[in-house]
């Protein structure tokens, strides 16, 4: 595939199957996602929540008809930094067929411009410490690991 | 002050002055906030963006009329984890007058319940590696530092 011909666009519901496939086709993702036919309804519900929120954007990287990358951006207004907006990215995945071919970098560079367009002063993400390659990938793109990313699982009783 | 009598509630515009004072009265905050009278308009604008977004909540901890703590929660729908919602917290501060008296812990415990009420399966935050005490504070409350928190400053040209 010609990874020079990658185009970014907002995801549509028709992309959902390919997106969930990529989320599940991943070292950590395979333990927590459920890619099956029909797709579990929870993914469709989440898609509609994201799609209807002007501060959330699901972006796909495409080569022709094929979806080869995905990520979600959330734009958040904060009081800190004198009332500055930030962009948070999450769920970054590329298809195994294009891995190591620069699609991920193109996707992140696109997001940097999108976050600037939305007036954000900061772009942020957390990456699992188990993903050693990811840390270096993001550092090469200009991110700095200045913070601890802390998580707490919640169990609804 | 009796820190057993702390009440949490949603912030109103009338609290904004006390909130920005707390944000600025902080080792890192003092280098990036501007607490002055009248308050810079950017804070008021950010407050309205937060207040009008159903997925953002600005919460204050109060003792009587006095605001002694603040944080912001953002509820985010994701495709990952089978379409699960997360809560992200940011801008956590307590007033110097009550520091070390458990107000911060009470605030975080309140947020844990609020995030469950909203159906979130994960509560997350990033804390600057320069804030050594903060890491232990969050670990004691049940957070795990499993991720790197990566940031990129954006300069809008």
- Main sheet of chain A, how many strands, which sense, barrel? 5 strands, mixed
Shape assignment of chain A: globular
Alpha plus pi helix count of chain A: 5
Query: What is the oligomer described by this structure?
Result: homodimer
Q: Which sequence of strands runs across the widest sheet of chain A?
A: 1-2-3-4-5
Biggest interface, and residues per chain? A-B, 69 and 69 residues
CATH class of chain A: Alpha Beta
Under CATH, the topology of chain A is which? Aminopeptidase
Low-confidence regions of chain A: none
Distance between the termini of chain A: 48 Å
Structural domains of chain A: how many: 1
Output mean pLDDT of chain A. Answer: 95
- How large is the radius of gyration of chain A? 16 Å
Order of helices and strands of chain A: EHHEEHEHEHE
Per CATH, the architecture of chain A is 3-Layer(aba) Sandwich
**Strand elements of chain A, count:** 6
Which strand-content bin applies to the residues of chain A? 25-35%
Q: What's the layout of helices and strands?
A:
2 copies of one chain form a homodimer.
Chain A: E1 7-10, H1 16-24, H2 41-51, E2 56-63, E3 66-77, H3 80-83, E4 85-94, H4 103-117, E5 120-128, H5 132-140, E6 144-153
Parallel strand pairs in A: 4-5
Antiparallel strand pairs in A: 1-2, 2-3, 3-4
């Amino acid at each position: 595939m010609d990874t020079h011909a990658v185009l970014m666009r907002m995801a549509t519901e028709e992309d959902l199957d390919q997106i969930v496939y990529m989320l599940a086709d991943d070292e950590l993702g395979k333990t927590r996602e459920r890619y099956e036919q029909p797709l579990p309804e929870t993914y469709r519900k989440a898609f509609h929540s994201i799609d209807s929120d002007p501060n959330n954007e699901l972006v796909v990287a495409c080569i022709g008809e094929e979806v080869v990358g995905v990520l979600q951006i959330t734009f958040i207004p904060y009081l800190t930094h004198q009332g500055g907006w930030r962009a948070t990215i999450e769920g970054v995945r590329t298809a195994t067929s294009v891995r190591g071919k620069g699609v991920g970098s193109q996707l992140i560079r696109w997001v940097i411009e999108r976050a600037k367009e939305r007036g954000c002063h900061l772009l942020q993400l957390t990456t699992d410490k188990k993903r050693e390659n990811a840390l270096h990938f993001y550092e090469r793109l200009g991110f700095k690991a200045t913070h601890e990313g802390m998580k707490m699982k919640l169990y609804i009783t």
